[in-house]
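Example 3.2
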Amino acid sequence: MTLNKKKACSLVFVLGLALVFNACSVKYSFTGTNINYEITKTFSVENFFNDSGGGPANMGQQFTESLKDFYQRNTQLELVRSNGDLQLSGAISRYNIAPQATVTSTDPNAPDRAGQERLTIVVEVEFINTKNEEENVKRSFSFFSDYNPRTTSLLQVESVLIEEIFENIIQDIFTATVANW
């Protein structure tokens, strides 16, 4: 093969690859979203209220702000007050602390104590995609974290546990709504 034929073959190959990649209509980002930013430009998040009857007073506001921040960091969408192309709303529906393991005391007069306690939080979420109703989601997301009540009180670790739980719930919400994995 001569040099000109090699150049021609290479040029045809490169043009073919360009056509294949250009023909793909779904746009993927490095964060794993499949948002078409030509159609979907905004998102809104209504205040999530704490309807669980437990937890800190500011827990609903903390969740709302964390959710907004996560979407802003991981998408190119603009946050608007209401009526976004993508809309998130809901409430914290459960805040529960339950023993997970019992430690039996060697003292017959001392009561058995929990060796592990589990904090579980459940968030009800409604996601509306005004551009594609097939992607709408309405479901519960939950996560938990354990701590040792014999060495630390809930008040000492509550804010850290809530933050950890919220990070996991928000990641799950993001995956279910805009990542479609």
